[in-house]
UniProtKB/TrEMBL annotation:
One term of GO molecular function: kinase activity
Coiled-coil features, chain-numbered ranges: none
Residue ranges crossing the lipid bilayer per the database entry: 12-30, 36-55, 62-82, 102-121, 128-150
Residue span of region Disordered: 335-354
Pfam families in UniProt: HATPase_c, HisKA_3
Species name: Streptomyces atrovirens
Protein name in UniProt: histidine kinase
Catalysis: reaction(s): ATP + protein L-histidine = ADP + protein N-phospho-L-histidine
């Protein structure tokens, strides 16, 4: 054990010095007849009885033994029992608060002995001497052990909390990984479409290269434009796949990624499920980049699914706003027919996916945008995603994983 660990805490040092000072003052000013006169030796013994309390939490067993032994010597020298009778009891209380119950009961033996010796020295009735020797240690152990149990319970609670936090972080990382794999599959379809267009246009350019130069040039321009788009999508694909996965090597079947042209079908399905949806489109619709198109549809799907799950029968305002630089989707519900505010609930998953808002935020980051989801005043919930229409800085995996959902 190092010296730093043996150094007493300031609070314990103050307690020890307080008991020593009060004991010396009581011995000096309280002088009943029939006892040895309080002198320098008595003052030293009082200090030896009280000062071990400075180590009552560092060395609780040694504190009890030292304090009880010094007090026994004090009584054996014929000095009157004083307030220092409580110093072994305080040491026992600290021992029971930081050690198991068997150790505390073992430490009660010297305390009970000096309690009995103090009663006999004070010429008390034998019954009172026995009661004092038994009850005082029992009460001290009872209170101290209660604190010991509380400390142990708090330690277990900290461990459980740490395990829960670690599990939650692991589930969040797994959700991000799974969503990235799903996005990568959708990107595969997008890139495949670009390659098909490039192949067709290149073949057309080769066919009409000498017979129809303007058509060949137009085809080559289409090849260049489509190639740039495909290259950008490939970069996004590599960004998404730059993450460890526990894939078992089996490819699950999947459908082509849905686009915004299927939004009326999605709204119709949600209306059939009992929602009252008011759909509004603002701005001049423009062709969206493929990944932005998919992301907007997926966010709408996630938001409407959570309204069906958490607020069946709610009135929903679904707004799609086109601006020159970005597209904004907002889904806001009123909390259901009873108007309850779902402030304590947070939609987490699309049934069967286990991804929820974590995956939606990941999609928005990869597309260079951002997603917000929170309860609003008056009841209900609001989800909004803002996505740029032009090329933007791509989110790196380490950046995405470092941000909470």
């Amino acid at each position: 054990m190092t010296l730093s660990r043996l150094r007493p805490s300031p609070a314990d040092a103050v307690v020890a010095l307080g008991f020593a000072a009060v004991g010396c003052l009581a011995g000096a000013y309280y002088r009943p007849p029939g006892w040895h006169a309080f002198d320098g030796l008595g003052c030293v013994l009082v200090c030896l009885t009280a000062l071990p309390l400075a180590f009552r939490r560092r060395l609780p067993v040694s504190t009890v033994l030292a304090s009880a032994g010094a007090y026994a010597v004090y009584l054996g020298c014929g000095y009157q029992p004083s307030v220092n009778v409580w110093t072994p009891v305080v040491g026992l209380l600290s021992l029971a608060g930081c050690r198991p119950l068997p150790v505390a009961w073992a430490g009660s033996v010297p305390v009970a002995a000096v309690m009995a010796l103090s009663g006999l020295a004070g010429r008390l009735h034998p019954a009172l001497v026995a009661a004092q020797a038994v009850l005082i240690p029992v009460v001290a152990i009872t209170f101290g052990h209660t604190r010991y149990l509380l400390v142990q319970a708090n330690a277990r609670l900290r461990d459980v909390t740490a395990d829960l936090v670690a599990g939650q972080e692991a589930r969040a990382r797994n959700a991000v990984t799974l969503e990235r794999m799903a996005i990568a599959r959708e990107l595969h379809d997008v890139v495949a479409h670009h390659m098909s267009v490039i192949t067709i246009q290149a073949g057309l350019a080769e066919t009409v290269l000498t017979s129809d130069v303007p058509a060949a040039r137009s085809a080559l321009r289409a090849v260049a434009e489509t190639g740039r788009g495909a290259l950008d999508e490939l970069r996004r694909l590599l960004t998404v796949l730059r993450v460890q996965s526990d894939d078992d090597g089996q490819e699950a079947p999947y459908e082509a990624a849905p686009r915004l042209d299927r939004l009326p079908e999605l709204v119709g399905g949600a209306t059939a499920a009992g929602l009252d949806i008011r759909f509004t489109a603002a701005g001049e619709p423009v062709p969206l980049p493929p990944m932005v198109d998919v992301c907007v549809y997926r966010v709408a799907q996630e938001a409407l699914t959570n309204v069906i799950k958490h607020a069946p029968g709610a009135r929903v305002a679904l707004t799609l706003d086109y601006t020159p630089d970005e597209v904004v989707l907002m889904v806001r519900d009123d909390g259901g027919p009873d108007g309850r505010a779902r402030t304590g609930e947070r939609p987490e998953t699309v049934p069967g996916s286990g991804l929820g808002l974590i995956g939606m935020r990941e999609r928005a980051r990869i597309c260079g945008g951002h997603l917000s989801a929170a309860p609003h005043d008056g009841g209900g919930f609001e989800v909004e995603v803002v996505l740029p229409l032009h090329a933007s800085r791509r989110a790196r995996p380490e950046e995405s994983e470092g941000q909470g959902p």
